[in-house]
Amino acid sequence: MSILKKIFSSKDNTTITHQKTSRIAISGLTEIGNVNPVCPSCNFELDEKPERKKKCPHCGNNIFVRTRPLDRKKVLISDKQIDQLDFQWQLYNEHKERENYEQDPEYLKVRDELRKKFKREPSVSDVRWGLANLKVISFRFAQLDSFWDGVESTIGWRILPVRSFQKNCHGDLATM
Q1: Residues 145 and 74 in one domain
Q2: Fewer CB within 10 Å: N-end or C-end of the chain?
Q3: Is the pLDDT of residue 8 over 50?
């Protein structure tokens, strides 16, 4: 055994179990693929586990090597299982993204509003769109306020003399 394997294999067991339990808690993640060197299509036992895509010497189908999100193990999968594994990674990434957003009060507020509106749990992307819309709207209102402040400061001082002039002119004309 090489020195690097000895260093990296001596991990703290409590950390590993904590990581496994947090990954297993995500619904929809299943054990997909083969951890052992076995073809996922025909169950032919390979001499050694391949490190990258390879054709099975028995059936000729492609064997893909991927990491599954459930336990981060390298597994052998068939081309039929690629979409399943990609979907599991999508679930895993969405779960992690949701965990990151759970501490943002703006995110929680928008999520609750969308939950009431949809009558179901909104996806992370729905809430992110809602947040983006709120930020655009608040930015636009801030721009509009600053625009009107600018209008009042540049035009307002010109309008007042004109209005008073008009008033005086009409008053003068009425007395003539």
Answers
A1: no
A2: C
A3: no
Question: Which residue segment(s) compose the domain that 31 sits in?
Answer: 3-101
Q: SS3 of 113, please?
A: helix
Query: Tokens 């969405």, residue?
Result: 94
Q: What is the pLDDT of residue 2?
A: 52
Could you list the beta-strand ranges (E) of the chain.
Answer: 54-55, 62-67, 74-77
Query: In Å, what is the CA distance from 91 to each residue of 25, 35, 85, 122, 162?
Result: 12, 21, 10, 14, 65
Residue 46 DSSP class: P
Judge if 127 and 159 occupy the same domain: yes
All residues at 6 or more sequence positions from 47 whose CB lies less than 8 Å from its CB, including other chains: 37
Output the CA–CA distances (angstroms, integers) from residue 116 to 40, 84, 101, 174, in the order listed. 44, 31, 19, 63
Summarised one tens digit per residue, pLDDT across range 53-67 is 999 999 999 999 999
